[in-house]
Amino acid sequence: MEKHANEIDAVIEKMQGILQAMREQDPDFYAKYPMQLITEAEEQAIQSVSEKWRLPADYLYFLKQYVPESISWNTDEYINLDIYGAKDLLEGQCGYNYNPVTDEVITEWPSDYLVIASDEGDPYCIDLSREDTVIYTAEHGTGSWDFSVAYDNLVEFLHSVLQPRGGEELEFDEVEYDYYNIFLTGAGSDKIKTLLFIKKMFSCDYSQAKAYLDAVPLLIFKGIDQGAARIEDELKGIGAEYERRQISFGEFIAQSVKR
After folding, report:
1. Which residue in 22, 161, 52, 194 sits closest to 114, CA to CA?
2. Is the pTM of this model over 0.90?
3. CA torsion sign, 238 to 140 to 218 to 198?
4. Beta-carbon neighbour count of residue 134 at 10 Å?
5. Nearest-angstrom CA–CA distance, 147 and 137
6. What integer is the mean pLDDT of 149-153?
């Protein structure tokens, strides 16, 4: 456990370094929209999650050290990854194992899977029946959950937020991204395909998808250019009408902290 704790401490320190570099680049902006990692979780939050779930020791240690304040990680690997801290963990299960609208358990969800992070709706989970921190993921909105192993352990997963897909560790001051919003502006040539696309993007039913389509322009993506290109390809494939707008990094962060 001591070795794993040291590894977790090291990767969280690197996360803190990235956030510090961001704040130093634009101190006026981050004074209004603070982003930080606090080093100790509140005892009550840790007690609440410990009483609800039997958590692996490594993951429980991580929760004690990782308290995100309005942070979403954006790399070549992730569009908009939210990693939950102890105070966010219960809310993070909503829509996966629990429907807060109907106040019902979602029976299709694997009962031992705990969502520890989510990237635009795609969950990252640990299997509490295994007592380890193997990370599983699946694509949301496909009609069923098809999980696969994403990372062998928690530390590998945490390192992934610091690395682009090229494999070299991310140096914040050397990496620049272009950020975009993509708005759906019309049904296009095939309204049914566009409605199915909306259902997948927002994990909603058909009637809600129709309501979203009636309310265009509809923001369906915000993030880096690689993610925007994937969404554009999908929209072109179904013949939907859309608009792509480049935004500044500051605008992107402002949208993220309002979530």
Report:
1. 52
2. no
3. positive
4. 17
5. 5
6. 94
